[in-house]
């Protein structure tokens, strides 16, 4: 009986290490293969990234002068637009002043424009003479001159 128990326990404790180790070896080999693939993909990405960095750096250097000139032109254009806006504002103020001097109403400008010409009254003529505003020239500068200097 003891011999049978010993045989049963020896069969129970008898391990087939070869098959278990083979499974572990297969898993390790599979992981190594995947790591090698990942390493090669990362190497390709790194190589392409370096090539891309070199080409972008070369493009930036080659277009640097053009970008600098373009930025100068944009600044000049901004100055020209600001100057034109100031001139338009001045002209609008002068037109508004002329409208008030001639007594033009905002509602019916067409009739108001011809009103001084249609009135043959001396009062209207004398009032027009006193209301006349001396004309001042607005300095007009060529826009192209601004761009030729850049």
TrEMBL record:
Entry keyword annotation includes Mitochondrion: no
Coiled-coil region: 67-101
Keywords assigned by UniProt, alphabetized: Coiled coil
InterPro entries membership: Cappuccino
The keyword Transcription regulation belongs to this UniProt entry's keyword annotation: no
GO cellular component, one term: BLOC-1 complex
Taxonomic lineage from the root: Eukaryota, Metazoa, Ecdysozoa, Arthropoda, Hexapoda
Protein's UniProt name: Biogenesis of lysosome-related organelles complex 1 subunit 4
Species name: Leptidea sinapis
Domain of life: Eukaryota
